[in-house]
Design goal:
This protein is α/β, with parallel strands linked by helices and 561 residues long. It is built from 16 helices and 22 strands.
Length: 561
């Protein structure tokens, strides 16, 4: 039998392994630290400089009355966790797990206040779509991570950056660690753990337009699925409407969407019609994101879109000086027509005179690993929280809840995993299993001729956009599943032209592709099964919701391969 220390360039043992270092992972680590256990946090990128939390524009939700009383913001004292709960359940289209929603709305305020106490700065409160009252405390993702990173540094921990987990290590049905690639050295590392927390975010990168950073390739969801975890609500990836489609450098930037929050922006088709009057005549462009995205996609599909496949966002009905002057009152992340460090005026037309073409971009995964209120999965030793988990959002997420979920559920995942780990003894890792993971990791480098992972990735993005995107139908989903099956067979033939082992992006693509494929298979299978439209799922062949048949959830599991 091979020796584990000869198979791996490095072997680490820890009490709790957290896969993902940002909002959820960092918050979980803080709780493990409090309980005095060893915690190891791994991330594909660099902490506080990668991942989804950093890209959050600004709103983190808590009930408006608490925001007023605890943070001194101009909220509304008529609000309460109960009304927050009702909004979340309604906008989930009544299929969220209400036990999880109850925890979420009642613990949100405490978690947000903690961030402020730890140094996160806030910039007012906003009233976003789907909420009865203003609940979006404006706290950009950079502020969230500043607070969490600072708090983590106050206690011992191991942070491993530039580390891509390839697979979980199992002891029968229990998760006992993970193995993967140290990207900046090309080394193969193994980490044994008494408990594992999945905090990897969603699988947004298979789509051609996305608001997500490069790291969100569905790794955590795919690994959990292969380990036997139940996956729930996978048919509901959320698309954000009104995102820029060009230039390429700004593809997926959601600045036009922000205009619908702060101004009376008009969404027009190429005939100049405000088409949202057919979808939500009361709220129009201020409808929820699922409805806006679907409407945009239908306009383009039926030939009323622009040349890039989107629709138009117009401010030209407003006085030019009003449009110009409004910029100085936007929140700090978008003030004076900037988006981060980018001056959008350098790239966009005169928005007081011309419309911007924009379209839906993949933004969030409402579904994922099924958890209970303690962040436990059905796999012993495996816990999860934040984006990448299911049950909380149901068929649709309302604005601001993504960042809130990282704090509420990162906190709970950390406590639960630590309590579990306390009662466990170290486990000898299965050397044969580690050997198989190592072989899979290095296989693409060892093939002289193989399928190009870059080429397959582009084919996958086109397939996802056309067949598993904002709108779907039976024939398209069936075709997609067939192509995805063929791609699964082809994964064993992936090879790299470049054979370097240090930060070889082609090699990374070859390792991520199986995760992207299985993620899309779960989305397409669940979407095909749900013969109705609900929330973020829109079926062209079943355009209505069917509460008699489908007021329930779909669970995807792996059985017999």
């Amino acid at each position: 039998m091979p020796d584990l220390n000869k198979l791996a360039d490095r072997v680490i043992n820890t009490d709790v392994l957290i896969i993902g270092s940002e909002g959820t992972g960092a918050r979980a680590a803080i709780e493990v630290q409090k309980l005095g256990l060893d915690v190891t946090v791994v991330t594909k990128g660099v902490m506080a400089k990668s991942g989804a939390t950093l890209t959050a524009d600004g709103d983190i939700d808590m009930d408006s009355a608490s925001a007023t009383r605890l943070l001194g913001l101009k909220g509304d004292l008529r609000d309460s966790p109960k009304i927050f709960f009702e909004d979340m359940v309604r906008e989930s289209k009544y299929i969220s797990n209400q036990e999880l929603v109850d925890v979420h709305v009642n613990e949100a305020a405490e978690r947000v206040v903690e961030l402020v106490e730890w140094g996160a700065e806030i910039d007012g409160i906003v009233h976003a779509q789907g909420h009865t009252y203003p609940r979006g405390v404006w706290m950009p993702g950079a502020e969230v991570m500043k607070a969490l990173e600072g708090r983590m540094k106050e206690a011992p921990h191991t942070l491993i950056e530039h580390f891509m987990v390839v697979e979980l290590i199992m002891d029968a049905d229990r998760a006992v660690g993970a193995a993967g690639l140290k990207l900046d050295t090309g080394e193969f590392w193994v980490i044994g753990a008494k408990a594992v927390i999945m905090a990897t975010g969603g699988g947004l990168r298979p789509y051609p337009h996305t608001t997500a950073p490069d790291e969100l390739t569905g790794d955590g969801q795919a690994m959990a699925y292969r380990a036997g975890a139940e996956m729930i609500d996978m048919e509901f990836p959320l698309f954000l409407p009104y995102c820029l489609l060009s230039p390429v450098a700004l593809d997926g930037v959601d600045w036009p969407f922000m205009m619908t929050c702060f101004l009376d922006a008009h969404a027009l088709n190429r005939e100049g019609q405000r088409y949202m009057s057919r979808w939500d005549p009361e709220r129009m462009e201020k409808s929820t994101r699922d409805i806006n995205s679907i409407a945009q996609a239908i306009e383009a599909l039926e030939g009323r879109g622009g040349p890039k496949g989107g629709t138009y966002m117009s401010l030209s009905h407003l006085p030019a000086n009003l449009v110009e002057d409004t910029g100085r009152w936007f929140p700090s992340t978008t003030d004076n027509w900037h988006y981060g460090e980018i001056n959008l005026k350098d790239f966009l037309p005169d928005i007081s005179q011309e419309a911007m073409e924009c379209g839906p971009a993949s933004h969030y995964q409402n579904g994922g690993i099924r958890i209970n209120t303690h962040c436990e999965t059905n796999v012993p030793g495996l816990f999860a929280g934040g984006e990448g988990t299911g049950s909380l959002m149901g068929a649709n997420r309302i604005s601001g809840n993504a960042v809130t979920s990282t704090q509420v559920w990162g906190y709970r995942a950390g406590i639960s995993a630590a309590e579990f780990a306390k009662d466990q003894s170290p486990t000898d890792l299965d050397v044969d299993q580690v050997q198989a993971i190592r072989d899979r990791t290095f296989a693409p480098l060892e093939r002289d001729k193989g399928l190009s992972p870059i080429k397959v990735r582009k084919e996958l993005q086109q397939l996802a956009g056309e067949k598993i995107g904002v709108v779907r139908d039976q024939s398209g989903l069936e075709e997609a599943l067939k192509v995805l099956g063929d791609m699964t067979d082809g994964v064993s033939e992936l090879g790299t032209e470049h054979k370097g082992i240090i930060y070889n992006r082609e090699w990374m693509e070859a390792l991520q592709l199986p995760n992207l494929i299985v993620y899309l298979q779960m989305v397409a299978s669940a979407a095909l099964t749900r013969t109705e439209s609900r929330g973020a799922q829109y079926r062209l062949d079943h355009t209505k919701s069917d509460n008699d048949k489908w007021l329930k959830n779909i669970v995807v599991t792996r059985k017999n391969g």
